[in-house]
Amino acid sequence: MESPAKKEVLMVDLPGVGAATAEKLRESGYATIISIAVATPGELIDAAGLTELTARKMIKAARDAMAMGFESGEDLLRRRQRVVKLSFGVRAMNELLGGGLESGAITEAYGAYGSAKTQIAHQLAVMAQLPADQGGAEGSVIYIDTENTFRPERISQIAQRFGMDPMKALENIKVARAYNSDHQMLLAEKVEDLITQGLNVKLVVVDSLTAHFRAEFVGRGTLADRQQKLNRHMHTLAKIADIYNVAVYVTNQVMAKPDMFFGDPTEGVGGHIVGHNSTFRLYFRRGKKGTRVAKLVDSPNLPDGECVFNITQAGVEDI
Asked: Does the predicted model carry a pTM greater than 0.90?
């Protein structure tokens, strides 16, 4: 016998939610049941003026409707089959990351200036639009620019290399310039609104993740506030990646550790907060004869390794 079809749960079916409350929640970005299920009571209280008890009941009902409990490893393996591997357009980089940039995860790239972090971001913004048989995801790109480094001319050059119409490629990239850390966090939260409105987002780029946080929070006295704020920002990006199966690529600035006498003293800004929230961590540096080197520093399932590539007029290429 076939089991009866499970009735779809709507926002107004949740306890304590009427038409007016549902509208307030939608205006605040909580347009789906899953967005309620992964929210905190405090967020719903601020969004719709609910009591804490009502907010907790709503979240519990949403989680029950989404069956957000434990699942077997077999179920998780089956669910991971929806993961998309977005090609870098560089064979060596794809091999280093087990096939490409993984969706549903945050990939952090840190390195000194001129080490190719932003070049890779531009190339990924083009690759995400290509058909699946060319290593793409046939989707749109959100590019949050905090250092005024996005260049449409560069996108045109890379698009021509892969046989794309440059104007079409630029049209599919939604760029926003973030002027401070609060603006940057707001833009990240707006990504979910764009997705729920129908934009087929497959890649989110934040270039760079820590520039504003580093400039605004100066001195050891502000370190705790900075890290808490940065943690909240990365949790927003992680939620978008996981719920909507989007690839997130963030670049990060670096600092030198003066107490390190042996090895490379370069370390990414943001400390353990950024490190723990990033699924994959890549360290970029300059190599010999104008080449660049990418080193896989952290991954949940891949061995450490490194690869070498070139930056040319047409983008990032294999040697």
From this structure: no
